[in-house]
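Homework help board

Subject: predicted structure for assignment chain

Our instructor gave us this sequence and asked us to write out the predicted structure in token form, then describe one feature. I got the tokens but I'm not sure how to describe them. Can anyone check?
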Amino acid sequence: MFDDDALSRLRAILGRRPAAEIHAPQHRRACVLIPLVRNEGGGWSILFTRRSDNLAAHSGQIAFPGGSVENGESLPQAAIREAQEEVGIPPHAVELIGRLDDVITHSGFLVAPFVGVIHEPVEYVMQEAEVVEIFEVPFEALLDVSNPEVRAVPFRGKNYPAYFYHYSNYEIWGLTGRMLKAFLDLVWQAL
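My token output:
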């Protein structure tokens, strides 16, 4: 069970584990925040969004709040800013506890995922041009033995293995599934 003690152990694991940074200047730099939020039952959940169908990249997919890094902005600043812009999480409410390895997307982004604990209840505010839904998934659901399912996904004439996490009527996969798998592998060490 992921509880406050597990969170403390996860914080220590992330603190002593350097993130692998990829040098790929041909890709556009982006960041996401993996927001850990306390749920109504006192346990922990992860916040996700569903992206608008009108976006050019990853439209309609389940995602973490995130986006492109602006000129002069550090990667942590970008992750926190994007979370505020997309879902209304105030910067003062976020405690960054670690960074995962960089990930390159098929759409040409180099993404730095950050893990952040949200220390207070937040009234989410969607940036409707990018986000059409905000929802939380309890850790227990993501750590269930049925998750993840691995399936082959066709892309540009080839099949690639992909992680699929299921919760209620949501299917979390693609880039978010890859980052979630990397994160939950660390969470398993903290349990």
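Reply (TA_rk): Your tokens look well-formed. For the description, you could write something like this. The chain has a mean pLDDT of 94. That's the kind of observation they're looking for.
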